[in-house]
Every structure is written in structure tokens, then in C-alpha cells.
Fold this protein.
Amino acid sequence: MAKNENDYDVIVVGGGPAGASVAIRLAQSGARVAVVEQKRFPREKLCGEFISPECLAEFARLGVLDAMRGAGGVGLRETVFYAVGGRAVAVPSEWFARGAGETCALGLSRAEMDARLLARAREVGATVYEEAHAAGVLTRGARVGGVRAQARGGELTLRAPLTVDATGRERFLARRVGGRSGRRGLVAFKAHLEGARVADGACEIYFYRGGYGGLSGVERGRANLCFIVAARDVRARGSDAERVMREIVMTNRRAAETLKSARAATPWLAVALEGFGKFSVAPAPGLLAVGDAASFIDPFTGSGMLMALESGALAAEVIARHLPLLRSS
């Protein structure tokens, strides 16, 4: 069958760190790659915005380390975990350097980080469709053969022998081929704050009944607060993020100190969570999952971003190795 302009070797749905990691590496290996992203970057994203030292080594491999360092983020030398009563234990960031040559983690917004990664994907040759919402998968029998997407100019039909689901916790494509939603018993909130009294160079983690939250510096002198609470506690407080912060998060003694004079400088973002766990990395023939779409781990470990980048690297390595076979299919 003759190829047309909407035929690719690989289609990546989702332009976050996992999707960009796949796209950059595949484009550099000579693959014809399309990225389908429903938002226009830069955009805010609910996230702890903690980038561990290992991630900086990944950025170097992707060719974006200098861009990330110049984005105005904050160096984080340690993560301090606070019990409800205020007792604390500190973990130095350098413990996780793994020979990467970096001793600090980085506090940087997803708006800045993701935009730089997606720009790099374009730079190395990937075709990027922003403001394009994946509406469904194309199938040939049981095999996924691409996606349909709604874009500003109308519907896009993109075909490829392999599609990558990098849509994060929503697992949009995996659900389309048989995945089911779980019970959503948790809610996560995030905003950038002004006036927070977080310790210089620290990411602070607060534990409280039914959840935990993290506070650390990001660009423009602000701090990112991201926290998880039980859905029942959110409903009991009218889904008011400020009230949840005051009445739940600030039952932690340290959080009560750091957040006493804080105010939201950005709109609150919220998302319901199903919990954590591993999913299928190959939900259907012709479909792979990476990042949170493959496994969503408890965020307080600080490893989610690294898993996104490394799972993208692993997928790209395997796909590139079998590229001639894909092209002949």
C-alpha cells in the first residue's frame, strides 16, 4: 500500500515526559514519528514537579539539559519527610545521583519542563500535533493501526504499525481496547504558592490522616504544593481546595508553619486518582504503554518522572531495533 503524509512508523499519543522521551529517541534513530498532544504547550500539569538527579542525566542524553538548567528552576539538596507531629527525617538528593554527576534535584514546573522536551522532539524531526485530542484507535482485526484525532482543522487519521500510549494516569488508548476504570478513592490537588515558608533547597513532604503532600520551590520565587487526600474528605469540604489545605494538610505541624501565610498564585488543579499499580505494557497488538500509562506509583517516592523518561528510553530502544520489521508489516 502506498504511503501518504499521514502514515508513520510510530504514533505517540501524549506529549509529556514519557511520550517526548520515546519520540526524541525514535526520531534521532531515523523513524518517522508523530506525537499527538491534546493541549498546547506550555501548559500547567498536576505534578509534584520534583526532578531527581537521575532525570538530569536523562535530559543530557535527550539533548535538553542546558535548556532545563536555564529554565529558572530551584536546586533541591534534600527531601525532608515530616510526621504529623513535626518529627522529621532528611534524605540528601545526592544519594540518588547514581554517578550522574549531579548532586541536586531540581524544582521546575511541568509547564517549563514539558515544553522544552516537546520542542526538542520537533527539533530532531518528530511531527507534533498540538491541540489534537485522540478520539479513538484505528484497528485491523485485533491489531491497533493508528489513531483518530480531533484537531482545530478537523479530524486527523494517522496510521502506523505501532502506537504508543503515553497519556498518563488516564490510559486513554489502553481503555479503548478493553481497560476498565477502577474505584477513584483519592483526589490530588496542585497550585503554585506565594508566601510559603519552605526551607531553602528542600523538598518537604507532609503526612496527615488519609494522605500526604509535597512542597518545594520552583521558578519565579514560587513554591509548588501538591497533595493527595481521601475523596470522602474532599466531598465533606465542598471540593474547596483551599479549605482542604487548611483543614487537612495543615493538621501536619510543619505544614501549618510553612503554609500559614501562603496564597495560591495559580488556579488550583485537581484530579481523581484510582490508586496505584502496574498495568499491561502491551494492552493490544500494535499498542505499547509507557510512563504512568504502564505503571502509576505512589508519588511521594519522587521517582515518577524518572520512570517516565526511562520507560520511554526502553521502549524507543526496542522499537528502533525492530524498525525494519515494523516497516514491512
